[in-house]
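Hi F.,

I've been meaning to write this up properly since the lab meeting, where we talked about keeping a consistent format for the predictions we share between groups. The idea is simple: the sequence comes first, exactly as it goes in, then the structure tokens exactly as they come out, then a line or two of notes. No screenshots and no reformatting. I'm using this chain as the first example so we have something concrete to point to.
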Amino acid sequence: MELLTLDLDKIEDDFFDNCQLLGLQTNASPTRLCWLLETYLGLCFQRRMTDDIDVRRIYDVPQAPQLNGTLFDHIDTPDEPVHFLVYRHVFHYTDLGILLYTNHRNGYYLLPESKSQNYLLLIQDEDFRIRDKELTEWLQELPTIEGVSVLPLDQLKHKSNLII
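Output, unedited:
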């Protein structure tokens, strides 16, 4: 029987192709942040629970396969599941859009290299603009946004945690 392997590098290349990642510093709740993005920028984010990212222990489940090497090896797996929320804005006439991730939950980080960022925005079109202005410029003008950082995807060790 032939052994099949999953090429994670290929998956990463496809998922992050033509993307830009922004980190947001704000104390706003996810719902408030989505409201601000819709009200000020016209970006309507929706949450589908199937997009949310769960990190949970599988050792207590007898039928669960005991896997070595998961996307979340860097996280000491907690006793309770850690639930990172994901919101999505879809561009018209395409499957591309913007993903909004909560970066921290109960002391754990989805992207540990970016602990100072409360939220992550993955823009699936690196040339995305609103009225001839880059999104970073618009975000810096929003109330309650304390900082916006461009995070270089090629330098992030744990970017695979963002793949949904």
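Notes:
The chain is about 15% helix and 30% strand.
The two ends are 30 Å apart (CA to CA).

If this format works for you, I'll send the rest the same way.

G.
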